[in-house]
Amino acid sequence: MTSDDAQPRATMSATRGREGAEMTQIEAPRPRFAQIADILRDRIQRGVHAPGSPLPSEPELSREFGVSRVTINRAVGLLRTEGLVQVRRGKGAFVRPIPVITRVATQRHGARDKGRGAYDVETRRVGLEPSWTASVERVPASELTAGLLNVAVGAELVVRRRKYFANGVPTQIADTYLVSELAEKAGVTEENTGPGGTYSRLADIGRGPIHFTEEISFCSAIAAEATFLDMEPNQAVFEILFVASDREHRPVAVTRHIMAGHQWRLRYEWTDEPEGGSE
Amino acid sequence: MTSDDAQPRATMSATRGREGAEMTQIEAPRPRFAQIADILRDRIQRGVHAPGSPLPSEPELSREFGVSRVTINRAVGLLRTEGLVQVRRGKGAFVRPIPVITRVATQRHGARDKGRGAYDVETRRVGLEPSWTASVERVPASELTAGLLNVAVGAELVVRRRKYFANGVPTQIADTYLVSELAEKAGVTEENTGPGGTYSRLADIGRGPIHFTEEISFCSAIAAEATFLDMEPNQAVFEILFVASDREHRPVAVTRHIMAGHQWRLRYEWTDEPEGGSE
DNA sequence: CAGTGGTCTAGACCACCAC
DNA sequence: TGGTGGTCTAGACCACTGC
Radius of gyration (Cα) for chain A, nearest Å? Predict the structure, then answer.
């Protein structure tokens, strides 16, 4: 290959050598929209566009880079699915403040954080102000929840729905499902469950969970949830299915967490005592 | 609001009532490309387009739905970032076979799977044939690895790079970093580390890891990794930072896993013995 | 009303693939 | 050579925002 570095061929009509004002040069091999995304991403990270502040408008960027607005739109689209930028209709594209929150699953329940919930601790650790809303409903068990709770599909469940915020910004949805009968016995059918929350009430009646499993998977944001989480279309979310079981390994509660991918870091810690010593 | 359900206004020029052949009707409120993506997604899930088979070509779909090719391209783009579809240049867009692999982190090391590696087990469980490649290099510690291994930036590390496949399809990258000195002592500077792998060799010299932490975060696929993983641009990946520490809580090995989001489900299991009984 | 982004089209050129 | 998808433009209309 002699022409390895083969002349980028300035074909596409827009490598027009305009030089009015601050035009930024875009080369050919990598798609323009990707290169522009790279540049904007870099500017954001360098603080040229501070968190919360708007990017230049699409027509402006279009002029700066000498490409059509559609191309700009596509570049910004990349940053949106990455969670770096959020668009507010009619207003502009804004740099998202993304202090990543770390969730240490294996510490959330054990300590049962006297007085403070796990979310509270996680959020304050990065200097954010936590808040949430809660509501309780009764629903029939879906195939999924029925399977996890080991009851028949359609069985009555109590679902405790919570929405979490950090500095007023939505960060997470968590729906906890319990079999109605158990929820009533434990007295967690009202919004307020008392000190220590649902798990403490379950412990009170001897059904305190001690075995936990979590399954993390991906999905693209589903309409309703995406809307609440202020997510961009197409942005990825973590879905966590959390199952808490009592001493006899009977599942007592299932929680489904939905959280915007880029806002969270998930942490797990554990120890394996080697049974037979080290060989 | 009297006009709550306000007439979708069939404005955009393309609600043209063409009826030649098998044209599928597209309504207005939701973007056309999103609706088309919904339809195609549904067809895939119903098996109309079987795993491994191609979607109809863009011009074909363009005719079917009565929209421009660009719109089709955008619809397919959604399916690509969701991991449902993979495009092979010049050939077409193919339905990705996605048997999701479940990785149970908390079981991977404890059992130290006599004879079989954790990946092997995980993959075969869903009926896939595992394979991998490995190589060993020496690199200076980056800020990240240095911090995690508690050495100076630039210190010499041995990195064991592995690439994993299932049925020949790339699924995961895993790079394990060890301080060179330790790696030499443990004898894991060659590709073959003997039965039980690196951790067993570390155990042999009394540095067997028993404390583990994992941190999961998101990233959009980085060029090189995305290429290897056969990923679509823009598709989300899990990054797992895994730290193994010995009895004295000294970190001995750090592994960075990169895996395509839609191919994996991550599972964790643990037990919290309540120290003071259940109140 | 002007400004923002959201979507869509038609037409174009490109790179890659298979024949 | 003809088919596939990848990218880009220009022009257009839309909805939402704020003045």
Answer: 25
Q: Measure in Å the smallest separation between the Cα of B23 and chain A Cα atoms.
A: 27
Do A79 and A114 fall within a single domain? no
Portion 162-221 of B in contact with A at CB < 8 A: 200, 203-204, 206, 208, 210-218, 220
Answer yes or no: is A1 within a domain: no
Q: Is residue B46 part of a domain?
A: yes
Distance CA B25, CA B35 (A): 10
**Together in a domain, A71 and A191:** no
Asked if A278 is an interface residue toward chain B (Cβ–Cβ < 8 A), one would say yes
Residues of chain A neighbouring B233 (CB-CB closer than 8 A)? 34
Tens of pLDDT along chain B (279 residues) come to 333 333 333 333 333 333 334 455 544 478 999 999 999 999 999 999 999 999 999 999 999 999 999 999 999 999 998 889 999 989 999 999 878 999 998 888 765 555 578 898 899 999 999 999 899 999 999 999 999 999 999 999 999 999 998 888 888 999 999 999 999 999 989 888 888 788 889 989 999 999 999 999 987 766 667 777 877 777 888 899 999 999 999 999 999 999 988 899 999 999 987 664 433
Domain count across chain B? 2
The reply to whether B122 and B249 lie within a common domain is yes
| B222 CB less than 7 Å from any atom of strand C | no
Domain boundary among B47, B70, B95: B95
pTM higher than 0.90 for the full model? no
* Residues on chain A touching B234 (C-beta within 8 angstroms): 78, 81
Distance B31 CA to D11 C1' (A): 20
| A167 and A47 inside one domain | no
Asked if A68 is an interface residue toward chain B (Cβ–Cβ < 8 A), one would say no
Check CB contact under 8 Å for A206 and B278. yes
- Residues A57 and A83 placed together within one structural domain of the fold: yes
Q: Which nucleotide is nearest to A30 (CA to C1')?
A: D7
Name which of B101, B204, B270 to mutate to probe chain A: the one with the most chain A Cβ atoms within 10 A of its Cβ. B270
User: Range of B139's domain?
Assistant: 101-267
Q: Which of A95, A126, A147 is the last residue of a domain?
A: A95
Question: Cα–Cα distances in Å, from A278 out to A272, B182, B254?
Answer: 12, 17, 20
Q: Where are the alpha helices (DSSP H) in B129-246?
A: 143-149, 180-186, 197-204, 223-228
Please tell me whether any atom of strand D lies within 7 Å of the Cβ of B72.
no
- Residue A274 touches chain B, beta carbons under 8 Å: yes
Q: Which of B159, B130, B162 is CA-nearest to residue B228? A: B162
Q: Does a structural domain hold residue B7? A: no
Q: Which B residues in the span 235-254 are in contact with A, Cβ-Cβ below 8 Å?
A: 236, 238
List the structure tokens of B73. Answer: 């391209």
Distances (CA, A) of A18 to A23, A38, A68: 7, 21, 14
Tokens of A104: 């240490």
In 3D space, the residue among A115, A277, A124, A252 whose CA is nearest the CA of residue A177 turns out to be A252
Verify that B62 and B156 share a domain, yes or no.
no
Query: Is there a single domain that holds both residue A150 and residue A251?
Result: yes
